[in-house]
Amino acid sequence: MTDTEQAIIAMAAKKTSSLAMVITLGLVAMLSGLLVVITWQLTLEPIEKNKRIMIEKAIFQVIADAQYRQTYAITNKGLVSGEQGDGLPFYAAFDKTGQLKGIAIASAAQGYAGMVNLLYGYDPVCECIRGFSIIKMAETPGLGDKILTDEKFLTNFKALDARIDSDNNALKNAIVSVKHGSKSNPWEVDAISGATITSKAVAKAINQSAQVILPKLKPYISQLIYTPVEKQE
Amino acid sequence: MPIKEDHSITADTFLDGVWKDNPVFVMLLGMCPVLAVTNSVVNALAMGIATTFVLICSSVLISLLRKLIPKEVRIATYIVIIATFVTITDYVIQAISLELYNALGAFIQLIVVNCMILGRAEAYASKNKPLKTMINGLGMGLGFTIALLCLGSVRELLGNGSLLGFSIFGAQFQPWVVMILPPGGFFVLGSWLLLFNWIEERKKNNTATSKVSHAGAAASKGAS
Q: Strand A88-94 and strand A78-81: pairing?
């Protein structure tokens, strides 16, 4: 008879005391906590780095020729550098010579399967949207995710009109998605047939955010200057 | 109580999980990730490796602690141990690649309730020595990964026309989108089960023809 057998028989014979159970669970929980904390410590830096790289990749995808980026936010007090909890965050992207190439802003809207999180690029010179990239979405493969590959849909974002009205508090023309093939104005998004809801979500996400942030951003555009002192990775 | 502990480690300790007791094709365990994340080879491979890691680590730890864990709280203890390694895996995958992490979605956290791992803990790790448990877990994990790859490669090939992201059929291929959607998982799993049961039956009596109907029934059971 081995030790285990004896242990099993002993266990079956008498009930384990509550104290033993509490001690076992407590010890296992402590061990578990220790392991999780160690892993968290070790992976914190690479995870942060991955997140930064992912955002940078998305920014440089929506703004052509961009090389550097800086994070800003618009708060009640005005323009501040870095991410601020209560402000509206955005990223300014600069080319090699430090010239402002565009502004990338994150937004989200309800798609067909959950939220469509995206980042869009705004060009202050032509006052238009120059592109978008998806941060996260769960749209149907082969249908909703055509918004990433459908060339006709992507031409909508070559120069999507986003001028600000004369009162300076909203877009002159709201960005809307229209039925496939019926686009007639530069501020309309020609939806993909078969992915109408996702196309709509893209337009809605951009419109929602652009309506609020672009008028507020306009007076500060000249203040967006590349400062190489800031850590660039 | 005639419990006999067999400490001998044979080739079967390892190979059971790969073929005879394959967790997916024979025991039909852990169906949730099998159906959900096998829409591409990369996802299937990552899920297989993640599950194998959790399986081996948790069963070795459970095996080490098997004499200390009171039987009344064993399930709770197993879940805590499994959840620990799942959390570790979760962080590690985020550190390796956020894209992969987003593709796998909630299914990494759901490894906690993968019945294959809890089943191994209860049926094997709590009765065997750590080394034997580890070898068995490795075999089971490998069997699980192979099964996921079987599904993932067929689904990616038919549903996207590619393998590991490389285009195989060229641009003129019209993909069967249904294959990377949830129903495709059921179709492909059913077909694989049909094939494996057919092979198994054939081995048993060398007259396959009369038994195909049985294999078909098992396949539809697995897909239901």
A: unpaired
Distance, CA of B137 to CA of A173 (rounded, Å):
61
Cβ contact, residue pair B181, A140, below 8 Å: yes
B84 Cα to chain A: minimum distance (Å): 5
Indicate the helix (H) or strand (E) that contains B166. strand B166-167
Q: Residue B223: pLDDT band by 50, 70, 90 thresholds?
A: very low
| CA A195, chain centre distance (Å) | 21
What residues pair up with A116 in beta bridges, in sequence order?
A109
Q: Is B8 part of the contact surface with chain A (CB cutoff 8 Å)?
A: no
Task: Report how far residue B119's alpha carbon sits from residue B117's, in angstroms, rounded to the nearest whole number.
Answer: 5
Q: Which residue carries 């007791």 as its tokens?
A: B21
CB contact under 8 A, B181 and A50: no
Length of chain A: 233
Q: Which residue of B has its CA nearest to A134?
A: B99
Domain ranges of chain B: 24-141
* Whether B72 and A15 lie within 8 Å, measured CB to CB: yes
Q: What is the dihedral of CA B169, B173, B179, B180, to 10 degrees?
A: 80
Put residue A26 in one of left, alpha, beta given phi > 0 → left and psi -120 to 50 → alpha: alpha
pLDDT tens over chain A, length 233 residues: 566 666 666 655 566 788 888 888 999 999 999 999 999 999 999 998 998 888 888 888 888 887 888 888 887 777 877 766 677 888 888 888 878 888 898 899 998 888 898 899 988 888 888 888 888 887 877 788 888 888 888 888 888 888 888 777 788 888 888 888 888 888 888 888 888 899 999 999 999 888 888 888 888 888 787 776 554 44
Strand intervals (E) in A64-193:
68-75, 78-81, 88-94, 100-110, 115-123, 128-136, 160-161, 176-178, 188-190
Q: What is the pTM of this model?
A: 0.73
Number of Cβ atoms within 10 Å of the Cβ of A45: 10
Could you state, in order of their start, the residue ranges of all structural domains in chain A? 63-223
